[in-house]
Structure formats: structure tokens, C-alpha cells
Amino acid sequence: MTDQTHPRTGRLDLGDARALFVVRLATGLIQGLALYLLYLAADNRFWPETQPAVFGALTLAVGYGPVVVLAGAGRIKPLALALWAGVCTAILALMGAHDVARQVLGTYDHAPFLSFPVIAFGAAAMFIAHHLLVPAVRERRWIVDYPDYFDIAWKAGVQLALSLGFTGAFWILLRLGAALFDMIGLSFLEDLLIEAWFAIPVTALIFATAVQLTDVRDGLIRGVRTVALMLLSWLLLVMTVLVAGFLAALPFTGLEGLWQTRSATALVLSAAAALIVLINTAYQDGRPDNLPPTVLKYAVRVASVLIAPLIILAVWGLALRIGQHGLTPDRIIAAACALVGAVYGLGYLLAAVKPGGWMKPLERTNLAAAALSVLVILALFSPAADPARMSVKDQVARLEGGAVSSADFDYDFLRFESGKVGAAALEALTRSTDLEIASLARAAKARTYRAGGTLKERQDRTAAVRLQPVPGQTVPASFTDQLENHVDPLFACTADNACTVRTLDLNGDGRQYLLVAAGQAILAFAQDGAGQWRIIARYQTHCGPREGLGSALSAGATPAPATLPDLTLGGRKLQAIPEFRCDAPD
To answer: Are 53 and 80 in contact (CB under 8 A)?
Structure first.
């Protein structure tokens, strides 16, 4: 099925419009039902043996795959669309599975387990790839004329924005209607809106309907796009002046202040990305009958020249950070963005200075950078160039090569920020022949939160903690040895306000628990099977003053039975969280 718009009216033929409506409505309904089933699985209502990686794969595939069908229906033939949607869904599933499989999931991690980068970059890769492929399939050529790419990509962008806005407006109206009924004592609509079986399928269905509605009148969408591009193109003047002023001021201010921000690369890359987008809003499809005013033509040339120095600054700052502190996943992603930015910077610079047709090389640059972006994203979110794996390898090599001392090495990066590959590397360091490295690695492995800071800073914070055992008791030596792991929750225990400590058998199991009056709560610590002290509970008062807990703990503590027992439902343990009323009797 091809794009069957009427050549004069811009309308879809009635029969084609009805067929497309059925296809998109069915796609939205199937997507909504699939997402609802995943919601049920996440809530453990069925499929209790769900593997996290499988769940991540299905979530990304079901969340984005049907959108390919919504966007491609009516633009390419059904067989080509089915093949492309299948390929796209499979790739998304693999990206989702890899993203979850590389993570170390904790007790409180919940479905869909996906990290934000894979969600964002997955959507970007799908959008770019789709709008590189569809024009080529329609024209049956590997590379088509640039206006065809521009037309379908920017139209799709406007459709996406309008469809999301329509879906949001639909829910705002439903909420408003529910509030009106609620005022007169009818809560049926409010109750309905919070039901997942209604909210999830309806949202997908409304989004699919919005895509269809924005596709029926092709001319109207092009009109909205033209107005939006015209307004954005004039912002290019503002951004060009700001960036030119920034670059002109650098020789006088120096670069030291820029590097001290610790986010120079991200800021400079963002400025370059803004210039690239605004340049394209002015250039549009590059046809001679669609050129911008003269002032914008000059602004486009100047802005195109400014991108290259911004990319150089970004690469410079990134290289300094990597040289000082090694690779991290964020720096690898930034390097990938800088690579794509370098293609834009070089291509736009050549387009600005090359004589002949105004900015014509920009078209080839956009296509090359778009294809490179897709390849880079696929590499980053696959084993081919996994940022966590590359970062861990680099960081451990720096430690073993002496580029960073064992005291300054960031063991917590391996423990908390680099997934399974980092955990494996940390485990290997615990068996290091270097006793200091092994000791610090074991301490990091035992921590349940990121300590932050260098070893010297952590040691200083640990030394500042003051604990005062009640008369006749002592603080266990094993707890004192592990004090560095609990500095953050014990930040209130200072020399001027030492925290009272009492050992007590809380539940009659013969084990000694450690109670620490830290600030306005009493923390309960217990040793696990490996001898590590961990926080198991926090006691705090909901009625009455919270001060003086330390002196009260010194006077004594008596365990009281829990007010409500735990419940076991379908193999799951549910704990009661009491509601407190300070005016209620005990």
C-alpha cells in the first residue's frame, strides 16, 4: 500500500483512509493489551518465573515496535512494512534484553528494569532508521532525493508531537470529567481511570487514533510544520549570536572556568545540537523555491562554521576528563555523541565555505550523520561496545598499571555503577595479591550504598563518627571495623552529639541486635551470615517529640510485639504498614 493522497486536496482516498484506520486501530489495541499483560506480569499476577532480561526485551519491543506499524502504514507496501516492523522489533528486543542482563538487580528494582539511556536512545535509533528506510523503499532506490527525506521525517515529527499532545489532552479531559462527577458523589469514573485494564489499552488506542487523525489531512500537517519551522528558524539568529559571543570571549576568560564546571562536554554538545536543529529548520528541504530570507541565509553559514569549534571544545574537555579519571559509561556515550557531532561539524563547515549551491553539502552530511547515529546507538547498547564493559576494563587497567593509587581508586564504581561486569571485576580485586587493594575491594563489596569521595575523605568522615555505648555495654569490634560502610546514616553522630548505642535481643532469637539513636530515629543493625552489619529497621515516633531518643535508649528499651502480623499471598510476603493517629488511644 502506497501513500494514496489526492494530488490536489491532500486527502486520503476514502477507502484507503478506512483501511488505514482499521490497521492503526487494531495495532493500538494489540499494543495496549500486550502492555497490560506485561503490567500484570510485572505485578506477579501470572508468569511468576519471568526473567528480568526477557521482561526488558518484551517491554522495549512492545512499547516501540507497534509505533513502526503506525508510522509506516499507508506509506510502504504491507509486506515491506511487516518485514521492517519485524526486524525493528527484534532489534529493540535484543537491546532491551542486553540492557537488563548486564545489570545487577537489587531487591527493590522493579519491572521493566530498563535503564533510561536504552529507552531514549532506542526511540531515537528507531525514528532515524525508519525515516531513512521508508523513502528508499517507496522510491525503490538506496538513496533518494533529500527533499523526500526531509518531507517524511519532519512530517512524522509533527505528527508525533500532535499525537502525544492529543493523548495528553484526552487524559486531562477524562480527569476533569472524573472530578466533576466526584463533586456530586459519583466516583465511578475516577475508579475506572485508575484501573490498569482500562488506562493502558485506552492510552495506546487513543495514540493510534491520533496518528490516524493527523494523517487524514496531509496538507494541514504540512501547514503546521511550515509554521513551526518558520518560527524555529528565527531562533537561529539568537543562538548564533550567543554561541559566537561565547567563543569570542574564551580567549579573554580562558578555559579553566569551563573545565571547572565538570559538565563542559555536555553543555557544549547541547549547544552544537541546538545549532544543528535550528540550521535545518532554516534550510528545510533546500529547494530553490523554499529558501529562507537573506538574513537567515547568512545566519546559517555563520552557525555552520561555529559547530566545529564547539565540537573541538567538547572533545578537548572529554579527553582531559578521561586522561584524569579514565572511562565511565557516561564518558563513552559522550564520546559517541562527539563522534557524530564531528561529522556534522566537518560537513557543515565544508557546506558553509564551499562555493556553488547554497549549503548543498549539508544534505549529504545529514544523511551520513543519521546513518552513523543508528550504527553508534546499536553498538553502544549491545555487547559490541558496551560502555560498562569498556569502562571497567579501562578502570581496572589504570589501577593495575599504577595510573591511580589503590587508595584513590573508585571501587564503588565497580560496585554500584557498572553492572555485572563491574561486580565480577570487584570480586576479582578482593582476591588481589595487593593486600590494600583486596581490603578496600572487600569493604566496597560490603557496602549497600555508594560512599563517594576518596579513601582519605571516607576515612576522615569515619573518624568523625562518635558512638556512646550505654553503661555496661561496648560497641562490637566488628561493627567498629565496618563503620566506614555506615557513615552516611550515622552523619548525626558527632563529637558534640555522640549517638547512644545499645545491644539487645529484639525478637528472642538469641541474636544481639545493635540499636543506634541517630538523630530523630533509632537504627537497628544486625549481622548477616557473612558477618556484615546491615541496617534492618528504623524506629521513629509518630506522636510526640522526636528529640531525646538517645537518653531514652540509655535508660532502657523493651521490645514490643508487632501490632499486625505479615501476610502471605500467592507465595509473596506482605508486611503491614500501620496508620498512625496521634489522638487514638494505645
So the answer is: no
How many Å apart are CA 521 and CA 446, to the nearest integer?
Answer: 23
Residue 44, C-alpha cell as written in the block: 506477579
Closest by alpha carbon to 331, among 262, 426, 378, 398? 262
Alpha carbon 166 to its chain centroid, in Å, reads 24
User: What is the C-alpha to C-alpha distance for residues 282 and 226, in angstroms, rounded to an integer?
Assistant: 11
Phi, psi of 504 (to 5 degrees): -160, 145
DSSP-assigned beta bridge partners for residue 469: 501
Among 269-273, 356-360, 473-477, the range with the most confident prediction by mean pLDDT is 269-273
The C-alpha atoms of residue 481 and residue 464 are separated, in whole angstroms, by 14
Q: Are 415 and 444 in contact (CB under 8 A)?
A: yes
Per DSSP (E only), the strands in 446-532 are 467-469, 499-504, 513-518, 521-527
* Alpha-carbon 236 to chain mean position: 29
Cis peptide before 476 (omega within 30 of 0): no
Cα dist. 308→259, 356, 504 in Å? 19, 21, 66
175-209 in b/e form (b: 16+ CB < 10 A) is eeebeeeeeeeeeeeeeeeeeeeebbbbbbbbbbb
Report how far apart the first and last C-alpha atoms of the chain are (Å, whole number): 73
Query: Is-cis flag, bond preceding 293, omega within 30?
Result: no
Residue whose C-alpha cell reads 568522615 in the numeric block = 461
Do residues 103 and 26 touch, judged by C-beta distance below 8 A? no
Q: What is the pLDDT of residues 525-556, one digit of tens each?
A: 888 877 888 888 888 776 655 566 767 777 77
SS3 5: strand
Separation CA 286–CA 295 (nearest Å): 16
The DSSP output letter for 546 is -
**Burial class of residue 65 (count of CB atoms within 10 Å of its CB; 0-12, 13-18, 19+):** buried
Cell of 374: 543508528
* Interatomic CA distance for residues 37 and 46, integer angstroms: 9
CA atoms in the 13 A half-sphere facing the CB of 388: 25
**DSSP-assigned letter for residue 12:** B
pTM, two decimals, is 0.80
Task: Measure the CA–CA gap between 406 and 410, rounded to whole angstroms.
Answer: 9
> By three-state DSSP, how is residue 106 classified?
coil
Alpha-carbon distance values, 407 to 55, 355, 460 (Å):
39, 58, 13
How many CB atoms neighbour CB 113 within 10 A? 18
pLDDT digits (tens, 9 = 90+) for 54-112: 888 999 999 999 999 999 988 888 899 999 999 999 999 999 999 998 988 765 567 77
For residue 245, the SS3 value is: helix
DSSP 8-class letter at 383? G
How many angstroms separate the CA atoms of 65 and 83, rounded?
12
Strand, coil or helix: what is 89? helix
Measured CA angle at 42 (ends 36, 47), to 5 deg = 90
Cα atoms in the Cβ-side hemisphere of radius 13 Å centred on 123: 10
Residue 333 CB coordination number (10 Å): 17
CA proximity to 210, closest of 267, 261, 170? 170
Task: Give the number of other Cβ atoms within 10 Å of residue 473's Cβ.
Answer: 13
d(CA 528, CA 500): 22
Cell matching residue 306: 561555529
Q: Of 11, 8, 73, 6, whose CA–CA distance to 217 is shortest?
A: 11
